[in-house]
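C-alpha coordinates incoming
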Protein backbone atom coordinates (compact mmCIF):
# COMPACT_ATOMS: atom_id res chain seq x y z
CA UNK A 1 0.00 0.00 0.00
CA UNK A 2 1.48 3.39 -0.95
CA UNK A 3 2.92 5.31 1.98
CA UNK A 4 2.85 2.37 4.38
CA UNK A 5 4.43 -0.91 3.26
CA UNK A 6 7.37 -0.56 0.90
CA UNK A 7 8.14 -4.15 -0.09
CA UNK A 8 6.94 -4.09 -3.69
CA UNK A 9 7.57 -7.51 -5.27
CA UNK A 10 9.78 -10.59 -5.39
CA UNK A 11 10.92 -12.58 -8.42
CA UNK A 12 11.11 -16.27 -7.50
CA UNK A 13 12.40 -19.38 -9.19
CA UNK A 14 10.14 -22.43 -8.92
CA UNK A 15 10.50 -25.95 -10.40
CA UNK A 16 6.93 -25.97 -11.75
CA UNK A 17 5.62 -22.54 -12.69
CA UNK A 18 2.06 -23.61 -13.45
CA UNK A 19 1.68 -25.59 -10.24
CA UNK A 20 2.97 -22.72 -8.11
CA UNK A 21 1.01 -20.07 -10.01
CA UNK A 22 -2.17 -22.10 -9.54
CA UNK A 23 -1.50 -22.22 -5.79
CA UNK A 24 -1.20 -18.43 -5.61
CA UNK A 25 -4.37 -18.06 -7.69
CA UNK A 26 -6.61 -20.77 -6.26
CA UNK A 27 -5.47 -20.90 -2.63
CA UNK A 28 -4.03 -17.44 -1.97
CA UNK A 29 -6.58 -15.63 -4.15
CA UNK A 30 -4.12 -13.63 -6.26
CA UNK A 31 -4.85 -12.77 -9.91
CA UNK A 32 -2.62 -13.73 -12.80
CA UNK A 33 -1.51 -10.60 -14.56
CA UNK A 34 0.70 -12.11 -17.27
CA UNK A 35 1.85 -15.50 -18.50
CA UNK A 36 4.82 -16.73 -20.49
CA UNK A 37 8.34 -17.51 -19.30
CA UNK A 38 7.64 -15.31 -16.27
CA UNK A 39 4.21 -15.47 -14.65
CA UNK A 40 3.30 -12.34 -12.69
CA UNK A 41 0.48 -12.14 -10.16
CA UNK A 42 -1.14 -9.31 -8.25
CA UNK A 43 -3.55 -8.72 -5.39
CA UNK A 44 -6.76 -6.72 -5.60
CA UNK A 45 -6.37 -2.98 -5.04
CA UNK A 46 -6.47 -2.29 -1.32
CA UNK A 47 -7.95 1.20 -1.62
CA UNK A 48 -8.97 3.62 -4.38
CA UNK A 49 -5.46 5.03 -4.12
CA UNK A 50 -4.09 1.74 -5.43
CA UNK A 51 -5.93 2.31 -8.72
CA UNK A 52 -3.16 4.76 -9.59
CA UNK A 53 -0.66 1.91 -9.67
CA UNK A 54 0.09 -0.61 -12.36
CA UNK A 55 2.31 -3.23 -10.77
CA UNK A 56 2.59 -6.89 -9.74
CA UNK A 57 3.33 -8.43 -6.35
CA UNK A 58 5.11 -11.68 -7.24
CA UNK A 59 6.82 -13.11 -10.33
CA UNK A 60 7.49 -16.80 -10.96
CA UNK A 61 10.09 -18.25 -13.32
CA UNK A 62 11.15 -21.84 -13.91
CA UNK A 63 14.31 -22.91 -12.12
CA UNK A 64 15.69 -24.36 -8.91
CA UNK A 65 13.64 -22.98 -6.02
CA UNK A 66 15.09 -19.67 -4.87
CA UNK A 67 14.94 -15.92 -5.41
CA UNK A 68 16.25 -13.83 -8.29
CA UNK A 69 15.68 -10.40 -6.72
CA UNK A 70 13.27 -8.34 -4.66
CA UNK A 71 12.08 -4.75 -5.00
CA UNK A 72 11.36 -1.87 -2.65
CA UNK A 73 9.02 0.92 -3.67
CA UNK A 74 10.42 4.46 -3.61
CA UNK A 75 9.44 7.85 -4.99
CA UNK A 76 11.11 9.75 -7.82
CA UNK A 77 12.85 12.11 -5.38
CA UNK A 78 14.04 9.19 -3.28
CA UNK A 79 15.43 7.59 -6.44
CA UNK A 80 17.82 10.50 -6.94
CA UNK A 81 18.93 10.25 -3.32
CA UNK A 82 19.60 6.52 -3.57
CA UNK A 83 21.62 6.95 -6.74
CA UNK A 84 23.70 9.66 -5.06
CA UNK A 85 24.32 7.51 -1.98
CA UNK A 86 25.42 4.52 -4.07
CA UNK A 87 27.76 6.66 -6.16
CA UNK A 88 29.27 8.30 -3.06
CA UNK A 89 29.86 4.88 -1.48
CA UNK A 90 31.48 3.55 -4.63
CA UNK A 91 28.95 0.74 -4.90
CA UNK A 92 28.15 -0.69 -8.32
CA UNK A 93 24.58 -0.25 -9.54
CA UNK A 94 22.47 -0.32 -12.70
CA UNK A 95 19.55 1.87 -13.74
CA UNK A 96 16.74 0.30 -15.76
CA UNK A 97 13.93 2.13 -17.51
CA UNK A 98 10.63 0.23 -17.49
CA UNK A 99 12.33 -3.17 -17.39
CA UNK A 100 9.32 -4.84 -15.73
CA UNK A 101 5.57 -4.33 -16.12
CA UNK A 102 4.30 -1.49 -13.97
CA UNK A 103 7.80 -0.21 -13.35
CA UNK A 104 8.71 3.31 -14.39
CA UNK A 105 12.39 2.89 -13.58
CA UNK A 106 14.57 1.12 -11.07
CA UNK A 107 18.03 1.15 -9.60
CA UNK A 108 19.55 -2.27 -8.92
CA UNK A 109 22.47 -3.19 -6.71
CA UNK A 110 23.32 -6.18 -4.50
CA UNK A 111 23.51 -6.72 -0.77
CA UNK A 112 26.97 -7.64 0.55
CA UNK A 113 25.63 -11.21 0.79
CA UNK A 114 25.10 -11.20 -2.98
CA UNK A 115 21.31 -10.93 -3.34
CA UNK A 116 20.13 -8.32 -5.88
CA UNK A 117 17.83 -5.59 -4.58
CA UNK A 118 15.88 -3.12 -6.69
CA UNK A 119 14.51 0.21 -5.57
CA UNK A 120 11.80 1.10 -8.03
CA UNK A 121 9.47 3.88 -9.01
CA UNK A 122 6.14 2.44 -10.13
CA UNK A 123 3.97 3.71 -12.95
CA UNK A 124 1.01 5.88 -12.02
CA UNK A 125 -2.23 6.00 -13.98
CA UNK A 126 -2.64 9.55 -15.38
CA UNK A 127 -6.40 9.84 -14.86
CA UNK A 128 -8.12 7.70 -12.25
CA UNK A 129 -11.86 7.86 -11.67
CA UNK A 130 -12.13 8.15 -7.89
CA UNK A 131 -15.75 6.96 -8.09
CA UNK A 132 -14.72 3.77 -9.83
CA UNK A 133 -15.88 0.65 -8.04
CA UNK A 134 -12.85 -1.29 -6.91
CA UNK A 135 -12.24 -4.27 -9.17
CA UNK A 136 -12.52 -7.31 -6.96
CA UNK A 137 -11.87 -10.95 -7.65
CA UNK A 138 -14.57 -11.98 -5.20
CA UNK A 139 -12.01 -13.94 -3.19
CA UNK A 140 -12.63 -12.65 0.31
CA UNK A 141 -9.75 -14.57 1.90
CA UNK A 142 -7.11 -13.06 -0.42
CA UNK A 143 -4.32 -10.94 1.13
CA UNK A 144 -4.51 -7.15 0.90
CA UNK A 145 -1.04 -6.95 -0.59
CA UNK A 146 2.51 -7.88 0.24
CA UNK A 147 3.73 -6.96 3.72
CA UNK A 148 7.47 -7.65 3.97
CA UNK A 149 10.28 -9.96 2.94
CA UNK A 150 12.62 -11.80 5.29
CA UNK A 151 16.05 -12.90 4.10
CA UNK A 152 18.40 -15.58 5.38
CA UNK A 153 21.93 -14.25 5.71
CA UNK A 154 25.22 -15.59 7.03
CA UNK A 155 26.12 -12.03 8.08
CA UNK A 156 23.01 -10.18 9.20
CA UNK A 157 24.99 -7.24 10.55
CA UNK A 158 26.79 -6.53 7.28
CA UNK A 159 23.66 -6.83 5.14
CA UNK A 160 21.57 -4.71 7.54
CA UNK A 161 24.20 -2.00 7.85
CA UNK A 162 24.42 -1.82 4.06
CA UNK A 163 20.67 -1.26 3.91
CA UNK A 164 21.00 1.48 6.52
CA UNK A 165 24.30 3.17 5.72
CA UNK A 166 24.32 2.93 1.93
CA UNK A 167 20.68 2.77 0.83
CA UNK A 168 19.06 4.81 3.62
CA UNK A 169 16.88 2.28 5.44
CA UNK A 170 16.32 2.54 9.18
CA UNK A 171 16.87 -0.40 11.54
CA UNK A 172 13.96 -0.93 13.91
CA UNK A 173 15.21 -3.83 16.05
CA UNK A 174 18.24 -6.08 16.32
CA UNK A 175 18.30 -9.38 18.19
CA UNK A 176 21.84 -10.33 19.18
CA UNK A 177 22.97 -13.94 18.79
CA UNK A 178 26.30 -13.48 20.55
CA UNK A 179 29.09 -10.95 20.99
CA UNK A 180 28.97 -8.66 17.94
CA UNK A 181 26.78 -11.21 16.12
CA UNK A 182 23.38 -10.08 14.91
CA UNK A 183 20.84 -12.90 14.92
CA UNK A 184 17.95 -10.90 13.45
CA UNK A 185 17.54 -7.39 12.10
CA UNK A 186 14.34 -5.60 11.08
CA UNK A 187 14.74 -2.72 8.65
CA UNK A 188 12.22 -0.24 7.29
CA UNK A 189 12.05 2.29 4.48
CA UNK A 190 9.07 4.18 5.87
CA UNK A 191 7.12 3.80 9.13
CA UNK A 192 6.21 0.11 8.75
CA UNK A 193 8.19 -1.79 11.39
CA UNK A 194 9.96 -3.93 8.80
CA UNK A 195 9.94 -4.00 5.03
CA UNK A 196 13.10 -6.12 4.88
CA UNK A 197 14.05 -8.39 7.79
CA UNK A 198 17.12 -10.60 8.06
CA UNK A 199 17.68 -13.77 10.05
CA UNK A 200 21.03 -15.46 10.55
CA UNK A 201 21.79 -18.62 8.56
CA UNK A 202 25.48 -19.34 9.26
CA UNK A 203 25.89 -22.06 6.62
CA UNK A 204 24.63 -19.95 3.74
CA UNK A 205 27.09 -18.87 1.07
CA UNK A 206 24.77 -16.15 -0.24
CA UNK A 207 21.90 -14.17 1.23
CA UNK A 208 18.62 -15.71 0.08
CA UNK A 209 14.93 -15.95 0.78
CA UNK A 210 13.61 -16.99 4.17
CA UNK A 211 9.96 -16.05 3.62
CA UNK A 212 7.56 -13.58 2.04
CA UNK A 213 4.78 -12.09 4.16
CA UNK A 214 1.32 -11.00 3.02
CA UNK A 215 -0.88 -8.44 4.73
CA UNK A 216 -4.20 -9.57 6.19
CA UNK A 217 -6.90 -7.31 7.64
CA UNK A 218 -7.32 -9.08 10.98
CA UNK A 219 -7.43 -12.51 12.62
CA UNK A 220 -10.78 -13.38 11.05
CA UNK A 221 -9.33 -12.64 7.63
CA UNK A 222 -6.37 -14.89 8.43
CA UNK A 223 -8.69 -17.69 9.50
CA UNK A 224 -10.57 -17.43 6.20
CA UNK A 225 -7.38 -18.03 4.26
CA UNK A 226 -6.27 -20.87 6.57
CA UNK A 227 -9.65 -22.56 6.09
CA UNK A 228 -9.11 -22.49 2.32
CA UNK A 229 -5.53 -23.68 2.78
CA UNK A 230 -6.64 -26.65 4.88
CA UNK A 231 -9.46 -27.57 2.53
CA UNK A 232 -6.96 -27.62 -0.33
CA UNK A 233 -4.82 -30.12 1.58
CA UNK A 234 -1.91 -27.90 2.60
CA UNK A 235 -0.25 -28.07 6.00
CA UNK A 236 0.64 -25.32 8.45
CA UNK A 237 4.38 -24.78 8.87
CA UNK A 238 4.31 -22.52 11.97
CA UNK A 239 1.08 -22.02 13.92
CA UNK A 240 -0.58 -18.72 14.86
CA UNK A 241 1.97 -16.76 16.88
CA UNK A 242 2.60 -13.18 17.98
CA UNK A 243 6.11 -11.88 17.40
CA UNK A 244 7.73 -9.74 20.05
CA UNK A 245 9.66 -7.66 17.50
CA UNK A 246 7.01 -5.98 15.36
CA UNK A 247 4.13 -7.15 17.57
CA UNK A 248 2.47 -8.81 14.57
CA UNK A 249 0.31 -11.93 14.58
CA UNK A 250 1.55 -14.43 12.00
CA UNK A 251 1.09 -17.90 10.57
CA UNK A 252 3.35 -19.74 8.10
CA UNK A 253 2.99 -22.39 5.41
CA UNK A 254 4.77 -23.42 2.19
CA UNK A 255 3.96 -22.94 -1.47
CA UNK A 256 4.41 -25.92 -3.84
CA UNK A 257 8.01 -24.88 -4.56
CA UNK A 258 8.84 -25.02 -0.84
CA UNK A 259 9.05 -21.27 -0.34
CA UNK A 260 7.81 -20.25 3.11
CA UNK A 261 4.77 -17.96 3.08
CA UNK A 262 3.66 -15.84 6.02
CA UNK A 263 0.29 -14.19 6.49
CA UNK A 264 0.31 -11.43 9.08
CA UNK A 265 -1.61 -8.58 10.66
CA UNK A 266 -1.09 -5.83 13.26
CA UNK A 267 2.50 -5.00 12.31
CA UNK A 268 3.73 -2.06 14.37
CA UNK A 269 4.33 1.42 12.92
CA UNK A 270 7.25 3.59 14.04
CA UNK A 271 8.06 7.29 13.80
CA UNK A 272 10.96 8.23 11.55
CA UNK A 273 13.13 9.17 14.54
CA UNK A 274 12.51 5.95 16.52
CA UNK A 275 15.97 4.62 17.45
CA UNK A 276 17.16 1.07 16.94
CA UNK A 277 16.55 -1.23 19.90
CA UNK A 278 19.16 -3.91 20.57
CA UNK A 279 18.00 -7.08 22.33
CA UNK A 280 20.71 -9.00 24.18
CA UNK A 281 18.64 -11.98 25.35
CA UNK A 282 18.50 -15.30 23.48
CA UNK A 283 16.57 -14.66 20.21
CA UNK A 284 14.51 -17.78 20.92
CA UNK A 285 13.19 -16.04 24.04
CA UNK A 286 11.87 -13.07 22.06
CA UNK A 287 10.72 -14.63 18.79
CA UNK A 288 7.17 -14.98 20.15
CA UNK A 289 4.92 -13.95 23.02
CA UNK A 290 3.11 -17.29 22.72
CA UNK A 291 5.40 -20.09 23.86
CA UNK A 292 5.09 -23.34 21.97
CA UNK A 293 3.89 -21.81 18.69
CA UNK A 294 7.26 -21.19 17.04
CA UNK A 295 10.06 -23.74 16.50
CA UNK A 296 13.59 -22.95 17.71
CA UNK A 297 15.41 -20.57 15.40
CA UNK A 298 17.82 -22.21 12.99
CA UNK A 299 15.85 -25.45 12.68
CA UNK A 300 13.64 -24.42 9.77
CA UNK A 301 14.51 -25.37 6.21
CA UNK A 302 14.69 -22.42 3.84
CA UNK A 303 15.75 -21.49 0.33
Amino acid sequence: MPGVRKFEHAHLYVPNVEETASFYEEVMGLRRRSSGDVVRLETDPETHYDLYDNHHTIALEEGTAGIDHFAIRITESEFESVESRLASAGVEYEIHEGAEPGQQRSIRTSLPGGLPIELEVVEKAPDVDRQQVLPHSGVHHAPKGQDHITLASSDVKTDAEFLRDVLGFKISDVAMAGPDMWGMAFTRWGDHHHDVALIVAPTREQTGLHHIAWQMTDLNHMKQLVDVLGKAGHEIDIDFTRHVLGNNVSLYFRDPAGHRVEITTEVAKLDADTPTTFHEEDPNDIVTFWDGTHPPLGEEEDH
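note: The chain has a mean pLDDT of 90.
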